[in-house]
Amino acid sequence: MWGRRARAGGHVPVTCPRKTGGTDSGKNGLIMTARAIARTAAKHFFLILGGFVMLLPFLWMVGTSLEQGGFSNYVEAWTKVPFGRYFLNTLLVTVLVVFGVLVTSCLAAYSFATMKYRGRDMLFLLFLSTMMVPQPVYLAPSYVILAKLGWINTYAALIVPWVANVFSIFLLRQHFRTIPISLYEAAILDGCSRLKYLWKVVLPLSKSVIITVLLFNIISSWNSFMWPLVVTHSEELRVLQVGLSYFNQEQSSNHQLLMAASTFSTLPLIVLFLAAQKRIVASYSRSGIKD
Amino acid sequence: MRTKSRKSRIEPYLYILPALLVVLVFRTLPILSSFTASFTDYDIGGFHGFVGLDNYARMLSDARFWQSVINTLFFVIGVVPAGIIFPLFLAILLRGKLAGKGFYRTIYFLPVVTSAVAISVVWTWLYNPEAGPINRIITALGGDPLLWLREPRGIFEMMLAPIGIHPKGILAGPSLALVSLMGVSVWKSAGYNTVLFLAGLENIPNTYYEAAKLDGAGKWGTFRHITWPLLSPTTYYVLIMSTIISFKTFALVYVMTPPPGGGPLGTTNVIVFYLFQKAFDRFDIGYASAISVFLFLVLLGLTMIQRKVAGRKVHYGS
What ipTM score was computed for the predicted complex, to two decimals? Predict the structure, then answer.
């Protein structure tokens, strides 16, 4: 719509008789703007087409969820299996994981970035090396370790292994290093404790990167699937993604219910994304380039 | 005085300790274990003994394993170029000042932050052969409905059948089921790649474009001689990242073509899915670990290339 209107507008100056004095440069200017407008219109045409392709599955999801029964599909899906429980589980896991990541990462990154001690670079390398290995590679031995700890099918299995995140440590360390070390040394000489310096100086100067870490970890924790699928069995411990995947298998012919469940499962993150989209997009692109 | 200095010597380690414990127990230890376990016959009954390279030998003669490798390669070869071409096109359109730029970016990015499980559930419905929207559109336009996620035939086989050619084996190409999964994968990551390309494009100084304009370069010439070469660090990065992500595909396969099987006739059985099945359906940890090590070595090679490229990229900026 938008594209077509812009294009129609673009033709007007070309076909109209010249209104401006009639110098050659004036005519050129008009043709130039007409071309520019046509080009912009063409751009919007393709961009809208692209946007349509990206949005269509979401529109179909919501559309189908409201077929035959409308909103009652949502109620039925919600009550057929304990989605409320799945939501609370996901929320609990996400909150604790993200909180844990923030605490452990800020502490570790602060130590790596500002303090000098033996073995520091080796330890940092040890951390980084784990980033090279993707999760599927060590999934089976992780299960064995959890089994030895007696943690299979517990909240601990969903939370504890994820309360440290090397990528977050890396991002925070990079930022902490930009804070002048002389400031730190002066504060320590003045008798300021290290923890107090972290709390009073470093963290307030790092709000932006902390929010990036926060958003990253909320998204990845909320969406994580393979791990909770493996380490929990009972329905009481299911997180949303696992619950939705089982629901998909059990109700495979009940499309309205499946789409309703998909809609309410994705809604919280979509809302979060729309609320913080600028920052999320920027974080993804920036960290992507840095990594 | 002495105790204080000792305290301050230990202190830096205390800051690392919480993260270190988690990393050691839940990253380093399982990573190392997956190497050692690959030389054992660890299974549901526990550890029985070392078996040398038996698991690796078994891998070489396991037809299902090779099927998963070939499917993964099909997947990567299909997804990666498509995941570069479309996002690059969108990013070029978005470059510079444009009304609604943020709006477009938001929409393109939506599938990136949405969970793979929910997206898979939705696409399973879109692809549904009986009543799904895609087949309804095809029939409305007068075409023949397709089986999509339930179609084991290779796409080349399907395309060439009408003219009487019947390619077999690898030549039949990836099954339509696998191609349907590839489509979802490209769709899901398009927004991320677009944003990466856009960042790369906006790093190219405008003066190059102005100079090209003065020289009378056309659209294609500008792309060929300015955009493409100057964008190459980003393109390499996207290439490697998409390849790594494609190698790790799991949720889409697991949800859209659920176990047992890995799709019709195992044609969507990709390597991580196979690894998962061996480890958690059969609890064949030893064998699964050997597959893990194989996957790790492939990904390590790719990561090394990526590090090199990322290093080059830093120089490019200055």
Answer: 0.90
